[in-house]
Design a protein that fits this description.
Helix content is 32%, strand content 34%. It is an alpha+beta fold and 112 residues long.
């Protein structure tokens, strides 16, 4: 009985620790998987526009939103996050959980 309670206590503490340390905050750009780090492809094809225009156009064409941070392109798990479209192409502060190369967003706001 004591051993069962001890194991349950350890499991509960580990669960709490992983929950508390799971969310982190980064500053970076919301882009799309087709362009990733750079939207130069848009201008190479003779199209003019902003990073926002390019990101939205690529997403409408079937690409997925990504988060670019320190030269790394990270997938976004929750593509339906309410403000992704609003901040497409913008520099943002993103709070979320990173697992491997995929982020699940919990908060997204304009970078200051």
């Amino acid at each position: 009985m004591k051993q069962t309670l001890s194991i349950a206590a350890v499991v509960a503490m580990l669960s709490l620790a992983s929950t508390l340390s799971a969310a982190s905050t980064w500053t970076g750009k919301i882009s799309d998987a087709a362009c990733g780090l750079s939207h130069d492809t848009m201008t190479e094809h003779g199209k003019k526009g902003t990073d926002k225009d390019c990101t939205l156009m690529c997403v409408r064409g079937g690409s997925r939103y990504v988060f670019v941070n320190d030269g790394k392109v990270l997938k976004i798990a929750n593509q339906d996050f309410k403000t992704l479209q609003q901040f497409a192409g913008d520099t943002v502060r993103l709070t979320g959980d990173l697992k491997g190369d995929t982020i699940t967003i919990t908060k997204l706001e304009q970078a200051k």
